What we know:
Elements: E1 9-14, H1 22-26, E2 30-36, H2 45-54, E3 64-69, H3 75-94, H4 107-127
Antiparallel strand pairs: 1-2, 2-3
Amino acid sequence: MQRNFTSEFAFRTSKSGGPGGQNVNKVSTKVELLFHIDSSKLLSVKEKSILKRKLNNRIAVNGHLYLVCQDTRSQLKNKKLVIDRFYELIYKSLLEQKKRIPIGTPASVKRKRLDDKRMNSEKKKLRARVRYSA
C-alpha cells in the first residue's frame, strides 16, 4: 500500500558541506524534506500517533519531520534520495513488530553447559598440588 505524500512535502535547499570544490560554494545541493505529521491527510490518527512515538527524535518542536540529504553533487538526485528515505522510514515505522514469544532453554543446551562445567572442574582439580600424608 504505497501512498503518494508528495503534495504534503516541503523542501528547503542550501549549500552542502564537504568535498566538491568550487561547486560546493556556488550551488545549493543539500535538500531538506519537511513533513508535518499532524496536518497529513493521508495518515490515520492511529498512524500519526505511531509515527510520533517511533520518530520522536526526528520530529522538531513545531511538529515537522526533518530528513536531510547531501550525498551527491546534484540537487535533483539528493531530492530523489531524501524522498526514498522518507518512504522507507514511514514504511518501517508503520510495520507491526511481531510479539516475541519467549521459549525455554532446550534440554540439550542445559546438558552441554553442565558437561562443560564438569570438564572445567576436573581440569582444575588436576592442576591442584598433590599433598602427601606421612
